[in-house]
Write a structure and sequence with these properties.
Strand content: 25-35%
Number of helices: 4
Order of helices and strands: EHEEEHEEEEEHEEEEEH
Largest sheet: 6 strands, mixed
Number of strands: 14
Shape: globular
Number of domains: 2
CATH superfamily of the largest domain: tt1808, chain A
CATH architecture of the largest domain: Alpha-Beta Complex
Distance between the termini: 51 Å
């Protein structure tokens, strides 16, 4: 049986689709695509403000990885990884996924089972429901240990840490330095991220 490859473009925003159809789909360039709860989500390429925040977060992890190459396996951007949740019919591409261990297998099925230890999302205007509600639930279900939501408009980073079957919240302000038990000796400076947002 020959499988027909689905083509997806901006006009498909809100279209109902299964994960089986969406995952191999050919997408029209110039936009970003996710599948959320069985609906196609089409987003514009992020603006410079968003990019600078993601880069400021990634830079801090990269400095630590270079100093401690055995502590972080990989730092992946949204175009380099995905999180597949078959039960929820979702395919997510986080802004950053921090993997502390190597993939459990070496094939295309790995994205359904390779769990990032830390996921970071930078909030874009109009996407608050996706980040604060939908992805909060999905990343927990997938097994992510910490989910960081960077929100320049609120001037805060919401850190969700898995503990005893639920997320435990901690709100960080621009002047805070966060230390996670997942990476001893790593110090995340919130100020750098908000300074980057202010420059855009």
């Amino acid at each position: 049986m020959i499988q027909t490859i689905v083509k997806v473009g901006p006009q498909d925003h809100g279209r109902r689709m299964s994960l089986t159809e969406f995952e191999p789909a050919q997408v029209e360039e110039g936009h970003l695509y996710e599948l959320g709860r069985g609906l196609v989500i089409v987003s514009d390429v992020p603006k410079l403000k968003h990019f600078r925040q993601v880069d400021a977060v990634r830079g801090q992890f990269m400095v630590f990885k270079l100093a401690h190459p055995d502590r972080i396996y990989a730092i992946a951007a949204g175009s380099e990884c995905k999180i597949l949740l078959a039960d929820l019919q979702s395919e997510r591409h986080p802004d950053l996924a921090i993997y502390l261990t190597e993939p459990p297998r070496e094939d295309d099925e790995v994205w359904a089972i390779w769990i990032p230890d830390i996921v970071v999302e930078v909030v874009s205007p109009g996407s608050e429901l996706r980040y604060y509600v939908e992805k909060r639930e999905e990343y927990f279900d997938f097994g992510v240990k910490e989910y960081w939501i960077v929100d320049a408009d609120k001037q805060e980073v919401l850190v969700l840490r898995r503990s005893r079957g639920k997320w435990v919240e901690r709100v960080l302000q621009p002047g805070d330095v966060y230390e996670t038990k997942l990476l001893p000796d790593f110090k995340f400076d919130c100020r750098q991220v908000f300074q980057a947002a202010a420059r855009a």
